[in-house]
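Working notes for the structural subgroup meeting. M.R. asked for a predicted model of this chain before we commit to crystallization trials. I am recording the input and output together here so anyone reviewing the notebook later can reproduce the run.

Input as submitted:
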Amino acid sequence: MTIGKGLASITCIGFTCLYISGFYLSKQTGFRNDPKVIKSRMKAVMVASFVSSLIVWSLIRDVAVTTALGLERPGLVVDMIKPILLTMSLFLGPLSVMFFEQELPFQRHFNVERDLYSIFTTLLGQRNYLVGPLTEEFVFRACMIAVLHQANYSTTFLIFASPLYFGLAHLHHAWDTYNKMGRTKRALKNALVSSLFQFVYTTLFGWYASYLFLRLGNIVAPVLCHSFCNIMGLPDFSGIQHQKKLHKLGIN
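Returned structure, recorded in token form:
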């Protein structure tokens, strides 16, 4: 049984509003990195993810919901190792810099407590590298693609158009930035520019993650790649100028 394209699009907008609304319906006030705000928002997005899964279950009838949402048991090589290696290839420049600086795991300057322990124990780490990637990929990748696929949208649409919802969902950071910088004209300008830039690169990543989800049929790969990209951050090549000539050649 298929659903109408209009209903599918409205449902995806609903997923976006549901995911974001918890950020602002919470009684906790403050900036996004305040511990109480982080805890409140993590609870909100987990509730939004659960509700979204119920909506998908109510709309999809001709295929198992676990299959539609990519919740089948992942393969170690196909669904986990290969996607991570592919994603790492996109960061060969920064990874090369880290290698020459001896900052990769098992190298001299790698700090377990600073570089690994904090990922799993601090609220910032749990939000940025665990809860954020898991809930965002589940709602904006699995749930949305499942609904849009049920409406017979093309694969091209699923890869290139569905991530626009993901990009739009990040525009709310403009409000946080605007408040944090004092609600001035300059704050507004900086908030709009940074949010537009964030919209662009989250959409680009969304294309990549959507392709992985459709290609592998499993949500694990997009989640792992999302978490890895968050850990790496935007590529910073400022350290290249301090490298030896041979190292620069290898990085380039």
